[in-house]
Design goal:
The chain has 322 residues and is of the alpha/beta class. It has twelve helices and eleven strands. Helix 3 links the parallel strand 3 and strand 4. The chain is globular.
Length: 322
């Protein structure tokens, strides 16, 4: 499949690249890395994500060129969907993506349903950027420092700074190669982890006050309401990474962040430790992801969704749910 995708990238000229709503480091890094490589090959590229790039990822090369709407009337030879297991997670641009000449789907989420004409889905990989690295090898392109920064940051963030179970020898080897190409780990880490705004720090403090434990500490959750965002002068993008704080508790197997998107709609982000597969849990709510990170959305009030999901998570750990 790697060689088949590489051939498609060689043959076509106009590409639409797209990734999931509420983008993370792997989503932005994969978009940027592939866009820069394709442009280096003389291709025309439009990189799309419905939502804004989180502030701590704005340093990434190409991040400032990602668009949030797909112009009507544009024609593309192919669309490449990155780091996105379900079409509906593309948001409002999904229809335009599906109208592209050919769809190439590249992902590492175990819940990916293979909606493309060509599908490269490998849950054993640390990140989608790791898969792109293999594709770039098949293309025999020389990787620039900007491409390397995108790949490194994607792997760094999706492995939780090389702390999560998806940190493999392969992921570390690729990260090391990116450093050899000029990436400065300290600079990237500082940009990602040491660039909080006062508002985001206040949001963290406020959200931690909601900390709730269930199942003897095996489930931990925090939440962010629209009122909390307004009070701290922050946006939904400022919640990226907050779920890792309840995950850091010693006893936790499932960590949950509830984020009120609009009145009556709640985004639920999941992280896990050990052998707990939160992608399986998310699929019960038509969500998806991979073993250690997943998400879904539910209708209802924040209070209702918190109660329902935490009860279900407790039962899931106790083996009472399929």
């Amino acid at each position: 499949m790697i060689s088949a995708i590489a051939q498609e990238l060689r043959e076509h000229s106009r590409f639409l690249l797209a990734t999931h709503v509420n983008p993370d480091g792997d989503a932005i890094g994969s978009l940027g890395a592939l866009a820069l490589v394709l442009e280096g090959m003389g291709k025309t590229v439009l990189a799309y994500c419905q939502d804004q790039v989180p502030g701590f990822l704005e340093f990434m090369p190409f991040a400032d060129r990602i668009v949030h709407e797909i112009p009507t009337g544009e024609n593309f030879d192919a669309a490449v969907v990155l780091d996105c297991g379900e079409v509906n997670r593309l948001g409002k641009g999904a229809e335009a993506v599906l109208l592209a000449g050919k769809i190439i789907h590249i992902d590492h989420h175990s819940s990916g349903n293979g909606f493309g004409d060509l599908n490269l889905i490998r849950p054993e990989c640390s990140s989608t950027a790791e898969l792109l690295y293999e594709i770039f090898g098949a293309l025999a392109v020389e990787l620039s420092k900007p491409v390397a920064v995108n790949i490194y940051t994607a792997i760094l963030t999706d492995t939780g700074s090389f702390r999560f179970a998806n940190t493999t020898a392969r992921a570390l080897s690729i990260a090391a190669e990116m450093v050899s190409l000029g990436v400065e780990p300290e600079e990237v880490a500082s940009a990602v982890y040491d660039s909080m705004t006062p508002g985001r720090l206040r949001l963290l403090a406020t959200s931690l006050q909601t900390l709730t434990l269930r199942a003897d500490g095996r489930v931990a959750a925090i939440w962010v309401s629209r009122e909390m965002l307004a009070d701290t002068g922050t946006t939904a993008q400022d919640t990226e990474g907050l779920v890792n704080y309840p995950r850091s508790l010693r006893t936790v197997e499932i960590a949950v962040l509830f984020k009120e998107l609009t009145t009556g709609e709640i985004n639920v982000s999941l992280r896990s430790r050990g052998k707990c597969n939160v992608a399986d849990f998310a699929q019960m709510y038509a969500g998806g992801g991979h073993e250690n990170a997943a998400a879904f959305r539910l209708k209802g009030t924040l209070e209702q969704v918190v109660d329902e999901v935490l009860q279900a998570a407790e039962e899931y750990l106790q083996g009472k749910l399929p």
